Structure prediction request, 315 residues.
Amino acid sequence: MNWISNYVRPTINSIFSRREVPENLWTKCPECGTMLFHRELSDNLNVCSNCDHHMVITPRERFNGLFDGGIFTEIKVPEPTADPLHFKDQKKYPDRIKDARKKTGEQEAMLVAEGEIDRTPIVAIAQDFSFMGGSMSMFVGNAIIAAAERAIMLKRPLILFSAAGGARMQEGILGLMQMPRSTIAVDMLKEAGLPYIVVLTHPTTGGVTASYAMLGDVHIAEPNALICFAGPRVIEQTIREKLPEGFQRAEYLLDHGMLDRVTHRRDMKEELVTITRMLLGLDPAVKGDLPAPPPDQISLPDETEQDAETADAKK
Prediction:
């Protein structure tokens, strides 16, 4: 037995030929602990296939699954004044913004887009909880106003997906001022007679819940989403009592009249199309209603094939 050729050489070869496995191929469900393959999880819209837990989804991923063919056009949002209060805690506010942009790849905590869902034109807004907790900032206020103005100009309904931890503390009173600003934007939609639909996702809390997230014509929530102003822990510490099971979760709020529907993420698009077309007074969407191909791409059967088909019809 040749120890070098039979053991040493294969060991060395295995070391150099070893492939690095990316760390982001698997995701652990925070609810049941199941390890989920990233492609399977993405195809399932970031919903656990084992326990149906709805994980956080970014606005861009949500829009890719919402709009027809994943095609949408981003709406430009005016940039507010950077660091108006020169706020600093453990980090300077501009440094926190840079870190959040590097982490998420997005400019801010809200994405505004326009497109079609089942051939129904809409304007949509979605908050990104991974961007500083989706906190309500001056940019978020500008985004809601820009979306409302665009919806009014195009005479389209506005659909908002909320996910936030409240107002952004680094902007102080300027962040809180977005509550009345967003309320005015919603009033503009109502005066124009356009539907405003809110989809509350996990979590929607603080000043967001106290303003535009609860001003919709229809309120839909994803399963088990936390929806509140003050969190359950704060309330328990204040009243010194144990809260009911599932308190401030979507299903609890539905039972107590705070919501209209609780809808699974995979059914959300169909639900939004049905409600939107109903509010607009349109006929129900036709499945498979695709645009006609250009005339130059339509292939007609030649005369021989037409003659054969005519003969078969006569028989």
